[in-house]
Amino acid sequence: GAVVSQHPSWVICKSGTSVKIECRSLDFQATTMFWYRQFPKQSLMLMATSNEGSKATYEQGVEKDKFLINHASLTLSTLTVTSAHPEDSSFYICSAIKPQGNTEAFFGQGTRLTVV
Amino acid sequence: GENVEQHPSTLSVQEGDSAVIKCTYSDSASNYFPWYKQELGKRPQLIIDIRSNVGEKKDQRIAVTLNKTAKHFSLHITETQPEDSAVYFCAATPYGQNFVFGPGTRLSVLP
Fold first, then answer.
1. Maximum Cα–Cα distance for chain A, whole Å?
2. What is the pLDDT of residue B110?
3. What average pLDDT does the segment B90-102 reach?
4. How many Cα atoms within 13 Å fall on the side-chain side of residue A50?
5. Closest partner residue to A102 among B32, B45, B89, by Cβ?
6. Using a CB-CB distance cutoff of 8 angstroms, which residues of chain B are in contact with residue A42?
7. Mean pLDDT for chain B?
8. Are B91 and B4 in contact (CB under 8 A)?
9. Considering only CB atoms, which chain A residues are within 8 Å of B49?
10. What's the pLDDT tens digit per position in B53-83?
């Protein structure tokens, strides 16, 4: 199977600072990547769809100015949590699908963000 | 858009028994239905998937069935083992679009 690497796996930051999370497809080109947020004991909630070379599509209720997504290349998408607050603490996971679509989604290992 | 429901939310079975998790979806355009297993603190891992042109698929102790008319699909795990304990997510997706996940089922296999 394909490999998606997410970095960092955990991060602790101070309230008011920004944090960048990277999602890389290591052995395939991903024209589309997805960012999810997962609260404890809950499901994966889609935040946004990231398309290479264009603006991300955000789900309703997700602040685009707070969660900046950049998909500058076919193998890298980044999520920046700006001016983080304690309520942003969560598990963030990215996934990528191969260009032909309608196939398995490959997940990164996730990033546990703690804002203190 | 697509809406996926999943039942039950928690399931406890004795080791060796079978476990069944059911999902329903709303969008008739969905044609790909994967099942993911997520262990605590880890990424979801695909365990089995099914496409809309197939009614059933089996892989050793795991099977998935799909009823397109009723818009529901189910995961069947036979001869459960303690290592099957995890959270299971179903998902549905129309071709080439994002996955919509169900709320998850926490399976506990009791020794």
1. 41
2. 95
3. 80
4. 30
5. B32
6. 103-104
7. 92
8. yes
9. 104
10. 889 999 999 999 999 999 999 999 999 999 9
Work out the number of other CB atoms within 10 angstroms of the CB of residue A63: 10
pLDDT of A89 > 80? The answer is yes
Residue type, B87: V
HSE-CB of B17 using CA atoms within 13 angstroms: 13
Position A100: which residue type?
Q
Using DSSP, state whether B76 is helix, strand or coil: strand
Q: Which amino acid is at B103?
A: P
pLDDT tens readout for residues A31-75? 889 999 998 878 888 899 888 888 899 999 999 999 999 988 889
What 8-state DSSP symbol labels residue A56? P
Q: What percent of chain A shows pLDDT beyond 90?
A: 63
Chain B interface test: which of A33, A39, A42, A44 (most B C-beta within 10 Å): A44
3-state SS, residue A18: coil
User: Which residue in A34, A42, A109 is closest to B98 by CB distance?
Assistant: A34
Measured CA to CA, the distance from residue A81 to residue A83 in angstroms comes to 7
Tell me which residue of A48, A38, A4 sits closest to A24, measured CA to CA: A4
